[in-house]
Every structure is written in structure tokens, then in C-alpha cells.
Amino acid sequence: MRQRFQLLYNLALILSDALAILAAFTVAYILRVQIDPRPIVTPISANNYALIYAAVLPFWLGIMAVIGLYKRSFYHKFLKEFSGLVLTSAIGIMALITLDFALERPLFPARLVPVYAFGLSLGFLWLGRLILRFIKFMAARAGKGLTRVLIIGNGNIAPKLYQNLIGKKNNEYRLEGIWMPDLKPGQTREFKPDKKYRITNFNHALQRISGRHADLIVQTEVLEDEKNYLLTSAVESAHARYKLIPSNSSLYGVKTTTDLFFGVPSLDVHITPLVGWNTVLKRIFDITLSLIILIIASPFLLILAILIKISDFRGPVIYKHSRITRYGKTFYIYKFRSMYWKYCTGQKSGKKKTEIQIFTEMGREDLLAEWAETQKVAKDPRITPIGHIIRKTGIDELAQLINVLQGKLSLIGPRAITRDELKRYKSSRDKFLSVKPGITGLWQVSGRNDLSYEDRVKLDVYYVQNWRLWLDIKILFKTIGTILKGTGN
């Protein structure tokens, strides 16, 4: 029943998207050709116009499928789904514009048609999916289309799964039952699920699985060999989905792949998904975007350099600071200078001063506790007038595009830290050092100075363990919004 509902929902998504795209081009044609009184560039009849875009429709839907817009991981998340629709609409329109230039016969009766079509296709696609999402929600409220889940085992994760499955916010799953093995001598169990969910006998659990009373079986601990064999056999015979949650919590969040080692199946574990071809893909992404940004922003960066020099003549425009990159290697990070030079260098008799010494000499001992806690100061008296502006918007970090081209830094990644800060990462130290730091990252678009240092570490580690190219693209768009708003929220 669940699989049939899921299939129907996916088919409804495809039909809704197809109708939305055709409706967008139809309305765009009417707006420009029939309503707009201005003359058109090339007369194209409505029938020929409709045939052209009906032929292009499978290509457009194919792009949406490749990106993943028909997967549950996409259409269950508002922002991810909307970003995917923006991307596919842009690709679809650009492909049509390219085809229009390549063919002798024009595709558009006027230049405004693709402009109208882009906005309308995005709006209609999103509206159609919102309507289907609402229908799916109402069906879930009525108990239709839910995934029936059976939990096997106790383990530390079972109580959490149980609470989420019976919670009011759950509109995807329905708990079918939970079987927990008998306790060993001396063991106690605080977790006591409701009687209506408890399965007291392992054979009864197998019968429910074999009888196809569950769509998803979640095993939260490894059982005896015989029980494991019987369980997997029952799952296979019922053609149910199966999840094994390892008791080794260190495996959570890391990339695991299956392989053969001397003919024996093995589980390969990596700290981060950024291995192999993924590193090549990310490097190409970094170089391409960095060059584009540098070329486009070069006039603005020249003006910025002049303003920095006017603000404080005594120092250079670009400031270098020692940081660490992948595997703990040291490099100099570049920034457009936002502080007065005497505070940047802190030089006296050839010796560099620490921030604590500088604040003390300034008579600002009140800032020492804030610096010790976050390694930042909200209202830093060392910053120049222009420095306040470029720091608030993050423009000072555009100089790090040079670091990206050098291969020392990525566009997106964990925060570039000093070697002294590394100790604050504690047990997460090696995870942090497994990838290059970035100009921007999760913490920069999730609160910046409003976050505690511990929260920044958690966000950095999350990025390392959950990297995807799509995550980089999402962070990049959020960074643009942060710069435009001048906030880190």
C-alpha cells in the first residue's frame, strides 16, 4: 500500500511539473504576443509554438529527475526543493536560449518570452508542488500513505526512534511495533514502550515481517548469528526496506562504502565524503568560481584597496595571517586589512604582541573575557571606519580568493583557524584537519558572531562529515544573502 501511494505521488509530481511548464510557456506567449501591443520579432503560430515546447518538455523533466527533484530527500525539504526548482528552471531556459541561437528557425516570437517563461515556470512548479504537499499531508493525517516501521532491538537509539515515531510532528511513518531482546543478568531497562507497540516474542516479530505488516525494519543492535539470519531472510521474503543502525557511534556521520578485500566483502570508512573524485570535483568548482568572481569584482576591489589606504596610510592593503589547512599544514591567509596597522602587526622591538597585550595597552581590559571566550570582539576598537563596513559584509575575505587559486583554501569549508585554536576542537581535531578550510561555511551563514565557539566547532564537523556539492551551492547562495543583508543570520 505504501509503495503504491509513493508511486502515485511521484507520478502526480511529474504530471504537475509537466503541466506547470507547459502552462508557463502558454501564459508567456499570451502575455507577449496577444496582450502586449508592441510588435514581435518573429511571428510564430500558437500551434507551432506549442509543438516546440512539448518536444522540449521531456528534456526539462529529465533534468529535474537527474538533480533529484523526484526523490524524497528533495521534496520533503522546502528550501532544498525550491533551490532545485530555481536551478532546473534556469538550466531549462538557458538551454532553450542556446538552441534558439544555434537553429536557423527561431524558437521565441519575442525576447521577453523566455524571461516571462522563467518566472512563470518557477512559480507554477512551486505552486503545484505545494498543492501536492498539502494533499499528502492531509492523507497522512487520515493514516494513508504512511511507512509502517518495525523496530528490532534495544540499543541506545531505540528510545529516540520510538519517541519520534509516535510524536505529533511525524507525518511520514507509523510505528507497527518494537521487539527488544531479553535482558542479560544484571542489566536493567529504563525504556518501556507502550503495551500496544510491544512485541514480546521474536518469532511474532518475524511473522509480522513475513506477513508484510511492515514496510521498513530498523535494527538497532546486532543479534546472535541465528537471529540475524532469520531476520534478514524474513526481510528479503517480504521485500521490505531495512536499516541497520550500528552500535559503534563513531561510524555515524562518516562516509562508508562497500568493497572487496581479498575477495571478502568489507565496509570502508572515511572521515569525510571528500575523497577520490569528490576532491577533484570540488577543486574544479573552487577554481572556476574564484576566477569568475575575481574577474567580475576586480573594479570594485581596486576601489576598496584605495579606500583602505586612505583610511590608514601606514599599512598594506592586504593583511597576512598564519592559519592551518588540511593535515595541519601552515599557510598565510589573505584579507583586506580592516584594522589599524599598528594593531594588525602589534610589532614592538621586533616582537609580535598578542591580542591580550594590545587590549591591555589600549586600556580595554573589559574585552579580554569576550576574546578568550570566542576569539572575536563584537565592538572591536582596533577596526578602521571602512573596516567596520567590510567586516560586517564579509568583503574583507574576498582577498582569500587568491588562497583558493593557490590550493591552500576552498570557497566553502570549515573556518580557517590558527594553530592555537586547534586545541579547542578536542576530539574533533582530526575530523577538522581532514579537509581544507573555506572562505565561507556553515557557521558564517548560521549566526557568525552570535554563535558560541562550541557551536562553531559542531557546524564545522557537520560540514566535514556531510559534504555534498549541493551543500556547497546552498551555502554559497546563503553567503550572498548574508553579504547583501550585512548579517550572519
State the major sheet.
5 strands, parallel
Cα distance spanning the termini: 43 Å
How many beta strands in the DSSP annotation?
A: 13
Morphology call: flat
Task: Please provide the ordered H/E string of secondary-structure elements.
Answer: HHHHHEHEEHEHEEEHEEHEEHHHHEHEHH
Strand order of the largest sheet: 3-2-1-4-5
Strand residue percentage: 5-15%
Structural class: alpha/beta
Total of DSSP H or I helical runs spanning 4+ residues: 17
Explain the overall architecture:
The chain has 17 helices and 13 strands. Strands 3-2-1-4-5 form a five-stranded parallel sheet. A two-stranded antiparallel ribbon has the order 6-7. With 489 residues, the chain is of the alpha/beta class. Helix 1 runs antiparallel to helix 2 and helix 4 packs antiparallel against helix 5. The longest helix has 35 residues.
In short:
This protein is α/β, with parallel strands linked by helices and 489 residues long.
Keywords, separated by commas or semicolons:
alpha/beta, 489 residues, five-stranded parallel sheet, flat, two-stranded antiparallel sheet, single chain
Give the topology.
Elements: H1 2-35, H2 46-67, H3 72-75, H4 78-102, H5 112-141, E1 147-152, H6 158-166, E2 173-179, E3 198-199, H7 202-210, E4 216-219, H8 225-238, E5 241-244, E6 255-261, E7 264-270, H9 277-311, E8 318-324, E9 330-336, H10 341-345, E10 347-348, E11 351-352, H11 355-361, H12 368-374, H13 385-393, H14 401-406, E12 410-412, H15 429-432, E13 438-440, H16 453-465, H17 469-485
Parallel strand pairs: 1-2, 1-4, 2-3, 4-5, 12-13
Antiparallel strand pairs: 6-7, 8-9, 10-11
Helix pairs in contact: 1-2, 1-5, 2-4, 4-5, 7-8
